[in-house]
Amino acid sequence: MLHIRLAYAFDAQPGAKRQLDNPLFAILSAVHRSGSVGEAARELELSYRHVWGALKKWEDELGQELLLWNRGKRARLSLFGEKLLYAEERARARAQPLVANLVAEMEREFALAFDPGVHVLSLYASHDIALTRLKDFTAKEGGLHLDMRFCGSTDALNALSRGECMMAGLHVGEDRAPGSLTQRTFKRLLKPGLHKLISFVGREQGLMVAPGNPLRISSVDDLKRAKVRFVNRQNGSGTRIEIDQMLERAGIAPSAVNGYERMEATHLAVAAAVASNGADVGFGIRAAAAAYGLNFIPMMREQYYLACLKESLEQPAVKRLMELLRREGWKEAIADLPGYDSAGAGEVQSLKAAFPWYSFKGTKPGHEA
After folding, report:
1. Domain around 212
2. Which of 127, 146, 221, 295 has the fewest CB atoms found within 10 Å of its own CB?
3. Same domain? 52 vs 177
4. pLDDT the model gives residue 368
5. What's the total number of domains in the chain?
6. What is the pLDDT of residues 274-306, one digit of tens each?
7. Pick from 72, 88, 104: which residue ends a domain?
């Protein structure tokens, strides 16, 4: 059995390389996409000889073929090579939030060591691709370090109420009607006069299915089909709330969904499960589907908010974050993410404006949402 050893390195540029990188899987992924060792070498900016030698070295060490060679035909991964590649992608997608939390802890300490005057903003948040871009953007612009921890939306808000962070990241879909699961979840966690919301990004959520959609899945009703294997999100996540709310609205019992009990912690992990044929369908953001070459069936637009205490709006770190979010540079930083928009980014919203179930007839001055 092979064992894993983690290490880390300093890098002058934020987000220069993805975490948990391994050259073998970069090569396998490139060959899988291009169908050619030569094309893979060019894509990775390596010599053909280097890529060929690396593949042979790994085949010797692993004791199995990674590629199938047929003269005059496209190079393709062996069955073992495909299993290895998808196993790595699933494992990395699951580990990504944990690794990001570890990196955040170390970067915070180093940031204070190099510049004791830097603004540090602690953020517990539901995992999102744009948040990684935001951390890189604030680091590049200077003056603000995001001490970011990934967890579910409800866990983030609970951490905010306990004073463990300055901000909590949460996302909600379009169904915010009184009596909805969204109301039943978030009304107890967000208090008028105490909390404020800062708009972060809008994003598109929907069903992610295999390329070509072989099972012809088109709506949430298809999750009732016994042969359709679903992969869910974990309890406490904002996306799980959206999934349960869709099922409730469609009159579908969780027990009727094949795979309802199988859970992944991120959109990318769900996409990886579908891409590796571990499931037929999952629910997540368009950007995750695009990252794994999956078909995407749009279901809703949702808004991602950063919640904080009302008095925190006057904190220098929060003011700096809002100013950076309103910059044109932030819009450009996420322009290539499918399904995202930055409309209203950095603007403060009251709970009353965001959620229709709050009513403030006769509200006393100074106690507005």
Report:
1. 168-369
2. 221
3. no
4. 45
5. 2
6. 998 999 999 999 999 999 999 999 999 999 999
7. 88
What's the pLDDT at 164?
95
Task: Flag whether 140 is in a domain.
Answer: no
| Plot region of 13 (φ>0 → left; ψ -120 to 50 → alpha; else → beta) | beta
Give 233-287 as a DSSP string.
Answer: E-TT-HHHHHHHHHHHHHT--GGGSTTTT-EESSHHHHHHHHHTTS-SEEEEEHH
Sorted by sequence, the CB contacts under 8 Å of residue 362 that are 6+ apart come out as none
Domain membership of residue 318 (yes or no) is: yes
Task: Say if 224 falls within a structural domain.
Answer: yes
Q: Is 329 exposed, middle or buried (0-12, 13-18, 19+ CB in 10 A)?
A: exposed
From CA 190, how far away is CA 197, in angstroms rounded? 10
Output the six-digit token pair for 204: 């598109």
Please tell me the distance from the alpha carbon of residue 275 to that of residue 14, in angstroms, as a whole number. 28
Confidence band, pLDDT 50/70/90 cuts, at residue 18: low
Boundary residue ending a domain (33, 64, 88): 88
pLDDT over 70 at 17, yes or no: no
Residue 2 belongs to some domain of the structure: no
